[in-house]
Backbone:
């Protein structure tokens, strides 16, 4: 029987309990999160010059599965399929909804500062914030999905079919929410112990190495043949698809299957021990994801990144992206921006009513003379549970 894989304790209120939770973190997940976050920041940094640089475009295709799909599966690992009571809903509000609104507003303000018109984003969140909107819906859907008889088959079927429905597109991140749902569910299953043999057996190690190498070879040889809309999966199928509209779902199925397989290879190769600096920075993966667009956007919009064209400048730009990742994931930065990434919601809800205290009533004292109790049984106090049996006297 599969054993549940260890997961880090979630952050909770109280300095002592938060410190205990920090010590209990599993470095395996933090190491993976740092790698994925670094790849995301690097590709967003070089995005302006990626099309004209063969090496960067090849790297973009080869590492695609280790970025967004890996983040989706890791989000599933840390999710709960329990009932959405008041406390889980408040957690969703604090950790997803409010940060999405806050950073959407910051994005609009920064865009206005850079010369664009001020826009209030509601239906379609800007740039990377689509992930938060999808994450909100994934967590709402997970308790329902796990009750299905064949959850992975059903969610995969929905992901393939949604490409034929034009109404499912960028609005409310509907397309990517449904398309990535199989990976999110698979991540949740991994957190419950699914595929434990894959992560612990010796035979899976060379297979994982071969999978990573195959991704690199495919990215190098066919990076111009692999279309970006195949990987993003945020738009409906197109009649220009090389397999025709009728068979376009096959490409999406191959993309989803390869993404799941490559993330499993990445997890298999990722060290489970605590790595110096890497594990600590990986704990701030959520902060890195939220903050890095605000830092990159001024350099991109001012055209500074597009001026990079020599190999030395490209290497320097990539190193700057890695340094940015490490800075944003550092504990001082995480503590500084915590009011934005995990805002307080105590002002929004009324305090919970005090728990009622049990009331015990005493049996009135008998004033009249009563016959002596039988020597066979003793009297039972009036406040004892009715299901309890009277004690037998000896």
Residues:
């Amino acid at each position: 029987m599969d054993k549940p894989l260890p997961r880090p304790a979630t952050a909770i209120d109280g300095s002592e309990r938060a410190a205990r939770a920090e010590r209990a973190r599993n470095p395996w997940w933090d190491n993976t999160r740092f790698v994925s976050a670094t790849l995301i920041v690097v590709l967003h940094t070089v995005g302006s010059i990626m099309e004209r640089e063969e090496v960067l475009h090849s790297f973009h295709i080869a590492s695609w599965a280790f970025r967004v799909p890996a983040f989706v599966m890791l989000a599933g690992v840390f999710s709960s399929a329990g009932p959405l009571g008041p406390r889980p809903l408040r957690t969703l509000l604090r950790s997803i909804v409010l940060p999405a609104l806050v950073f959407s507003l910051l994005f609009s303000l920064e865009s206005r500062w850079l010369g664009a018109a001020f826009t209030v984003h509601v239906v379609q969140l800007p740039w990377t914030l689509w992930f938060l909107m999808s994450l909100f819906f994934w967590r709402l859907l997970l308790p329902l999905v796990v009750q299905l008889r064949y959850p992975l088959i059903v969610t995969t079927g929905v992901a393939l079919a949604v490409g034929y429905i034009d109404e499912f597109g960028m609005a409310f991140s509907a397309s990517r929410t449904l398309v990535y749902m199989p990976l999110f569910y698979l991540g949740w299953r991994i957190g419950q112990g699914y595929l434990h043999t894959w992560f612990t057996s010796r035979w899976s190690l060379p297979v994982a190495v071969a999978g990573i190498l195959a991704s690199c070879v495919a990215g190098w040889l066919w990076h111009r043949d692999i279309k970006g809309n195949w990987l993003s999966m945020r738009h409906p199928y197109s009649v220009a698809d090389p397999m025709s509209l009728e068979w376009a779902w096959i490409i999406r199925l191959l993309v989803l299957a390869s993404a799941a397989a490559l993330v499993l290879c990445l997890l298999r190769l990722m060290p489970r021990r605590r790595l110096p600096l890497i594990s600590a920075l990986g704990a701030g993966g959520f902060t890195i994801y939220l903050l890095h667009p605000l830092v990159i956007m001024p350099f991109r919009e001012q055209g500074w990144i597009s001026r990079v064209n020599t190999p030395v400048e490209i290497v320097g730009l990539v190193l700057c992206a890695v340094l940015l990742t490490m800075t944003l994931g550092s504990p001082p930065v995480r503590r500084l921006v915590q009011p934005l990434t995990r805002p307080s919601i105590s002002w929004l809800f009324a305090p919970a009513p005090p728990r009622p205290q049990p009331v015990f009533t005493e049996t009135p004292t008998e004033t009249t003379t009563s016959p002596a109790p039988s020597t066979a049984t003793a009297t039972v106090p009036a406040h004892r549970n009715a299901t309890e049996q009277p004690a037998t006297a000896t």
In short: DSSP finds 17 helices and no strands in the chain.
